[in-house]
Design brief:
The chain is an alpha/beta fold. It has 15 helices and 18 strands. The protein has two domains: 229 residues, Aldehyde Dehydrogenase, Chain A, domain 1 (3-Layer(aba) Sandwich), CATH 3.40.605; 187 residues, Aldehyde Dehydrogenase, Chain A, domain 2, CATH 3.40.309.10. Helix 5 links the parallel strand 3 and strand 4.
């Protein structure tokens, strides 16, 4: 066995941390409603105290405008308040029916915590995409570990929050590089929650397979947006550009590319250019409302996707500032480089279509089912036709991104765009084991299932209808 194939040695600090949390979980301390509620309230207190620090850290790490920072934080806070409000109800056992064969008896489903949970968040929304799964994990009665991401300032603030408001027995953040994450992945967890790229998702799943650890994978993919001939173009332009260029396109559910009906293509392109100028002015680099790419690697990757011959608007870049202008590309084909991978940056390709069947064929050629899909139309028939013909994780009709803000709906991908879902009640279920319990009565004992079976077959045959 060579060095490349040898299993990584387990780090003592990681083993000790997991052992400590598992001992605390095994004590039963996390199971009560009162304990879980207290952890959620402590999380809320931490978020309120450190809100300004998180805003500043997001600005430092990724150039996040203040409004976008508070959108990120308020989304997490809304979910936290929703969970606090409904936690007691969610924890109650659910009564279910009992078949004749199991009578006399009663059946129920109980919701029990899984144990020690490992949450891995991405760099694009380093606060909310850590806090949201953390809310579900704590609500379900688990303990949690999390490594830092590519956002050093945000990671430091979150580490302060964890140290001040939580015992390391319950929630602990580890600062460091990928070696920290790699070391923790060698440990045995009871659930791993990962948000990031499909490439890294495969690595996480491989590591989890060693212990048959269940995983939730929130990945990505090329999310299409369809602008049909009857769409209200002014509204569509604003909502599409707002969804695309929030966090300069570094959003897993951002509109990745546009399919625009040929009959409105020219008019819609004009409206997109006008709206873009309204949003960010003549020099978007000076706009206080536009962030930056996370690092030089992703800057170069996205810049290389821009074909200068197809630029409708934007196209400028500044490597020192990690700045790429909000860019619209016209006359794009499926063979162009920008259509070969998830863009994850401020570049929006526009593809013309004449019939929806063309769009369906294009989407089927994508490497994975879209994580999100958006369609702009005033026709219920068109809406239904699109939804019936494209498989995707979640999406909106006549809007972008907003489905992720609804705590009453699960969020997740399908196929290679993700595995499992969370948000609101679904987060609680994701981090809980749904345990089946049948309690049989002893006041009588029906002899149907006991040997000898001689004269009982007729009865079961009568039931078999």
């Amino acid at each position: 066995m060579n060095a490349a194939t040898q299993p990584q040695a387990r780090a003592d600090w990681a083993t000790n941390a997991v052992t400590r949390q598992r001992a605390f979980f095994d004590s039963g301390a996390t199971r009560s409603y009162e304990f879980r509620l207290q952890q959620l309230k402590q999380l809320k207190a931490a978020m309120l105290k450190y809100a300004d620090d998180v805003e500043a850290a997001l600005k430092a790490d990724i150039g996040r405008p203040a409004l976008e920072a508070y959108v990120e934080m308020s989304t997490a806070m809304e979910e936290l308040n929703h969970t606090i409000k409904h936690l007691k109800k969610w924890m109650q056992p659910k009564k279910v029916g009992t078949p004749l064969l199991a009578q006399p008896g009663r059946s129920r489903i109980e919701y029990t915590p899984l144990g020690v949970v490992f949450i891995m968040g991405p760099y694009n929304y380093p606060f909310v995409l850590c806090i949201q799964p953390l809310i579900g994990a704590l609500a379900a009665g688990n303990t949690v570990m999390k490594p830092s991401s590519l956002n050093p300032q945000t990671a430091k603030v979150m580490e302060k929050m964890a140290k001040e408001f939580f015992s390391p027995d319950v929630f602990q953040i580890f600062l460091g590089s990928t070696e920290v994450t790699d070391a923790l992945l060698e440990e045995q967890f009871d659930h791993i929650f990962f948000t990031g790229s499909p490439r890294v998702g495969k690595i996480v799943m491989t590591k989890a397979a060693k212990y048959l650890t269940p995983v939730t994978l929130e990945l990505g993919g090329k999310s299409p947006t369809i602008v049909h001939s009857d769409a209200k173009l002014d509204i569509a332009a604003k909502r599409i550009l707002a969804g695309k260029f929030m966090n300069v396109g570094q959003t897993c559910i951002a509109p990745d590319h546009l399919f625009v009906h040929a009959s409105v293509k020219d008019e819609f392109e004009r409206k997109l250019v006008e709206t873009l100028k309204t949003f960010y002015g003549n020099d978007p680099q000076k706009s206080p409302d536009l962030g930056r790419m996370i690092n030089a690697k992703h800057f170069e990757r996205v810049k290389a996707l821009i074909d200068p011959a197809k630029v409708l608007a934007g196209g400028q870049s500044d490597a020192k500032d990690l700045y790429i202008a909000p860019t619209l590309l016209k006359n794009v084909t499926l063979n162009d480089a920008v259509m070969q991978e998830e863009i994850f940056g401020p570049v929006l390709p526009i593809i013309s279509y004449n019939s929806l069947s063309e769009v369906y064929q294009h989407v089927k050629k994508l490497p994975s089912h879209p994580l999100a899909l958006y369609v702009f139309t005033e026709s219920r028939d068109v809406e239904r036709d699109v939804l019936d013909n494209i498989q995707f994780g979640g999406g909106c009709v006549n809007n972008t991104l907003m489905h992720i803000a609804n705590n009453n709906m699960p969020f997740g991908g399908v196929g290679e765009s993700g595995m499992g879902a969370y948000h609101g009640h679904r987060s609680f279920l994701t981090f809980s084991h749904q345990r089946s319990v049948l309690k049989s009565s002893t006041f009588m004992d029906l002899p149907m299932r006991y040997a000898p079976y001689k004269d009982k077959v007729k009865l079961f045959k009568a039931m078999f209808k």
